[in-house]
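Hi L., both proteins are below.
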Amino acid sequence: MDIIVLIKQIPDPEIPPASFKIDPSGTKVVPPAGVSPVIDPYSEHALEAGLRLKDTNTGSTLKAVSLGSGLNKELLKKALALGADELILLDDPAFADLDSAAAAAVLAAAVKKIGKFDVILAGRTAADWDAGQTGLLLAGHLGLPSLSRARKVEFTGGKLRVERIVNGGFEVVEAALPAVVTVSGELGKLRLPNIRGVLAAKKKEPLFWKATDLGTVAVNRLVKLVRLYQPVREAKCELIPGATPEEQGANLALKLRELKLI
């Protein structure tokens, strides 16, 4: 089985709110100094799904693919340390700040350049924009079946078998290969690399593909970001008067009724 896993580099979502800055144009996040990016948590779930498929299907290969501009090579080499056979970085200034539609178009061109594959795994969404569209749009570009919100992915009986999260539980669906699967957090956390994997990854270098390496790709952004801002939160405190606790309680009830909260 030939597996492709899409992994995304994002700003660390755990940065303190005070360190979160937006550039003067109001359309971009300014990465805080000294805070390194991370691999998107949903991408990690997808990578774990790919590694499990590789573990249970002898002779399988796994290629990890990441898209962006100014990608952190050492961060993304974690995929190699965990067992990916190849890491492909689609790194070009033209790939900066892509919306879901444009990202899917570029990824489709990269998948076609890779050639042979049986399954493409991606996160259900990403923790930066939470759009949840790229994987499904990629399936549309490639004309492949898509299975979303997977909590378990198996290859059995010549078909892909997926447990898919639905309201109140899950459903089991099957698809012929090749197919695209978006993976949910219920699949489980990404395993930790061992020392042997880390040392082996240090000796490997990723492949870097520029926009020109993918041929003619229409990078058409369909969404225009008008304004990015942090909401202003205001808190007010009103002291309820009263000479005794009973009087304060009665005044509080009157105030809540006035506000139509009771």
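That was the first. Here is the second:
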Amino acid sequence: MNTLLQRAKEQEKTFIEYRRQFHRHPEPGWEEFETSATVMRHLDSLGIPYTRIGTTAVVGLIEGGKPGDRCIGIRADMDCLPIMEQTGVEYQSQIPNRMHACGHDGHTAILMGVATLLSEIKDQIPGKVKLFFQPAEEGPGGAKIMIEQGAMENPKVDAVIALHIGTVDLPIGKIAMMPGPSSGGTQGLKIVINGRGGHGAHPHKSVDAIMAAAHVVTALQSIASREVDPLDSIVITIGTIQGGYRGNVIADRVEMTGTIRTLEPNVRNAVPGQIERIVAGVCEAMRCTYEIEIPEGIPSVVNDPAMVALAFDSCVNVLGKENVFIKKRPSMGGEDFCYFASAAPGVMLALGAENAAKNCNVPGHHPNITLTKMPLPLVWLP
């Protein structure tokens, strides 16, 4: 393993530059054309065969030189977010309203580095390794589509692993993981409330959709406080409200969108009915009608306990016990690695990147998020 660490250190500058290249040219889900082309050129240079799925997914295959019929998959996501970057770093996004604000540029560069290291020792590997370069983690449905189109077959994948960079709550250079649910299941939410418009000076002649919407936003929070076990987790956030024309006009329509986050299947399954009951009740009381859409969304990532134990011991062997932790709490952030971890025993690791001294301590999906060089020779994150 020390040889691997030394080789990683020797390759550091190469993969820092790859990460910066991806950061300069962020691409959204299923449009990661330049990113996937760079990945394929890298795999070609290593002699690693690969297949393509859809427009941009890439699946590499390393065949070990020792006897063994088991296969492990390693996944990295490649897509960006529709955010205008404000970091001011020299390798800042060159494309307006696109930014790698969730670490996917780092994930991709790391897996390219892993491909390099594993290709150099493939004669020592008993079995096979699949490299999943995944599009559209932020949506729409990159992992699920890859699996539906055979990414976990030929050869069949027996276990999967992934990591996610975090700049909050986990100091730089630390690794954390936990068995069981480790991320929130996510569902979208759209509510339309229809009233009857009119003059702001004559509200009694109208049906105010904005007032009804305000009551709905407040009432929805009673699901978490009064309908769900306090020891379970749920978040219902209304993120946008659109309605009205001007200050002296009573709105005839309001559209709200939001997100639902849960951990337990029973809580997730109950939420749509709870939301509709509350919206229906408020709208009846306020003389409005309503429409609700709650897409299926994605479930929680559920880490396999045996895979967590294996990953924990492996990380301790490489990084030392002082740098590896078992998390006590899951994150309510969504992650479509859940589909890989449902198809085979899996584990998602959290890679700490919090570094307040370098202003690397804002949360993901923030226009000022940035990364600093990691003190781990196994990864390259400038």
